[in-house]
Amino acid sequence: MxxxxxxxxxxxxxxxxxxxxxxxxxxxxxxxxxFVGYLNAKGVPYASYAAILATVIELLGGLALVLGVRxxxxxxxxxxxxxxxxxxxxxxxxxxxxAAQQEAVIHFxxxxxxxxxxxxxxxxxxxxxxxxxxxxxxxxxxxx
Length: 144
Description:
It is a single chain. By secondary structure, the chain is an all-alpha fold. It has one domain (4-127). Helix content is 76%, strand content 0%. It has helices at residues 4-30, 32-41, 47-67, 71-89, 98-124, 131-135. The longest helix is centred in the first third of the chain and has 27 residues, at 4-30. It starts with a helix and ends in a 9-residue tail after the last helix. 26% of the residues are buried.
């Protein structure tokens, strides 16, 4: 069981992670054709389907983070998503221009760090300030 202060910090962490994904998903949706073109240029297989999947994951995942719904599963899914996007979207090992390569290195490791945050969420859960927290049984009584 988490203390109220812990739950508040977990809530803030969930919001910080969600902002990135809600914004990214909205931008993908608004610039959908450009996003599909970007995925094609990166050599992502089935780019039109990958674009739909990425947009849905970001929007629904971000919303689930804000609400604290199935946070452990969502955290695990988004950790994997962050790693996949790091590998496909920030492939610095394929770049020859030094400035672009340096920027891609930063974004690659940023995605790895975000995946680490999601793995922590997988372990901690959403905390009390969440739908998951509202559904969790409260201690004190005998369990049958």
